[in-house]
Amino acid sequence: MILIDTHAHLYLPHFADDIDQVICNAADSKVVKILLPNIDTDSVSPMLDLCRKFPLQCHPMIGLHPSSVGKDYRDKLALLESMTENKYFTAIGETGMDAYWDTTFLQEQKDSFIMHLEWAKKMDIPVVIHSRETMDIVLEVLKAQKGDRLRGVFHAFSGTIEQAVNIISLGFKLGIGGVVTYKNSGLSPVIESLDLENFILETDSPYLTPVPHRGKRNESANLLLIAQKIAEIKEIPVEEVAGTTSSTAARLFNLDL
């Protein structure tokens, strides 16, 4: 059995003291690949350093998190785009829109999101989408930008069955993380009603820690708990969840297993 954590911020200071152990813990829990979404211009260097240290396990993305979009977002995007010229990135992300904390730069977030989608199409790699409190706007943008090369995943999906069906119809996958283990997540009907091929797994470490470790720092080893919960909901072996989601992730992100 193998698992792929398609979204983890293991380069953050939360892991500075024990990253070697965190990677070992992941391997012990059958997590063989970990995809690292970027946050801002300042996070690129530590992210790439981690990928150099663990080149078989860790794979970088490039993008500007919507919460990092401000007045100077165009300068940041220009710098990030320049980095794509001589480095290989597994995906564009994370990008998208977020209206949960602050809506001051929502239009700028939309403009940034569109630019990221253009990068993804130009580079022919997947895009990892953040859509907190902005699902309808994000879907509207995505439909307008849709092309044959545009593909990816809605990170930390926690929406409705209708939204999930719309996402799938656009050729995107649903990223399922620790929220699925929460009592009132509302994700069980989505998991039950849709084919397993539509899902990929993620931890969003160090955030969104699954039960029974909720409240503690999340890490990639906890991906196994997420796979087990999906297996419980669908009443299938956890090995089937691992096999299908890992194959889907490997195809989407062009990973060698």
CATH superfamily: Metal-dependent hydrolases
* CATH topology title: TIM Barrel
Strand content: 15-25%
Derived from helix and strand composition plus strand pairing, the structural class reads: alpha/beta
Number of separate domains: 1
Total beta strand runs:
8
Strand order of the largest sheet: 1-2-3-4-5-6-7-8
Q: What is the CATH class designation?
A: Alpha Beta
CA-based shape: globular
The percentage helix is: 40-55%
Cα-atom Rg, whole angstroms? Answer: 17 Å
Question: What's the end-to-end separation, in Å?
Answer: 12 Å
Low-confidence stretches: none
Order of helices and strands: EHEHEHEHEHEHEHEHH
Q: What does this protein look like?
A:
This protein is an alpha/beta fold and about 260 residues long. It has a single domain, classed as TIM Barrel. It has an eight-stranded parallel β-sheet, sandwiched between helices. Helix 1 links the parallel strand 1 and strand 2. Helix 3 packs parallel to helix 4. The longest helix is centred in the middle third of the chain and has 18 residues. The model has no long low-confidence stretch (mean pLDDT about 95).
Brief characterization of the structure:
The chain is α/β, with parallel strands linked by helices. It contains nine helices and eight strands.
Outline the secondary-structure elements.
Layout: E1 3-5, H1 19-28, E2 31-36, H2 44-53, E3 58-62, H3 73-83, E4 91-98, H4 106-123, E5 127-132, H5 135-145, E6 152-154, H6 161-169, E7 172-176, H7 188-193, E8 199-201, H8 223-234, H9 238-253
Parallel strand pairs: 1-2, 2-3, 3-4, 4-5, 5-6, 6-7, 7-8
